[in-house]
Amino acid sequence: MGPADRGPGLSAVATPPAAGRAEAGRVVDAYLDHLAVERGLAANTLLSYRRDLRRYVAALHDQGVHRLDEVGEQHVTGFLALLRRGDGAHPPLSSTSAGRAVVAVRGLHRFAHREGLTADDPSRDVKPPTPARRLPRAITVTEVERLLAAAGGADQPALALRDVALLELLYSTGARISEAVGLDVDDLQRGTGLVRLDGKGGKQRLVPVGSYAQQAVDAYLVRGRPELAQRGRGVPALFLNARGGRLSRQSAWSVLRAAALRAGLTVEVSPHTLRHSFATHLLDGGADVRVVQELLGHASVTTTQVYTLVTVDRLREVYATAHPRARG
Asked: Looking at 106, 176, 276, 281, which residue is catalytic?
């Protein structure tokens, strides 16, 4: 029987132990070989899987379990609990790290079951822990104003006008950077104060553009873009680079980062910072969460509702500092 006739995923990898002798350590080695050769996982990912699975095998051995066909669902859930509480040799893991380890364990059992080494998959119904919801990072209105005032620091006036227009439009519309650099001139609904954005999944939406952003974009269209367009081949993109081509997402991110440095902002500014700030400031100003959902282009309101947690935290902060009896 040639390598191509072995079970699925086993060509060019170590042969797993025979059924009934599914020693955990040997199956782990076969599984890691499978991941390296057949799946082409990166070296760092393989190292993480190896570390997590060795810890799993050690935990099984501590319970007198040496073969994968002896493992039950209780052993897998027990390992997850061990990861979260820690032990004498290992500190407790975060939900993200524990989830990664559980994914490795589930992959191991799925591999063993598929290769006929175990009668079933005891990890099938064990779900990785849900990571703690990370709140979006937003900056204050004052910090946004400092950021926008610091835009336009480029040496060439045309690029300076472009950078101001780009950042004003990002904050005014809540657009993703990829949506902004994907804009064509025709996407501007001149005279209506609206812009057409192409969101995820090809979904389009119309978003209002504030007066400050309209003025910045108009100035760029009149005095900046024509100069940049002369250097290129007449692309329809709204935001052009120094050679007259469409501005890339990476270059737009560099514009934002440079403005943040000039503004002296001490908080971290990411490509989504202005989008997060747009949503948070709207909700702080009393906007309905479903209106913000439409403006952001979220398919589900639950995605948008994470911003309400940010505003609640802000309310608590203001209350704690302003109310005379908030603290003892």
From this structure: 176
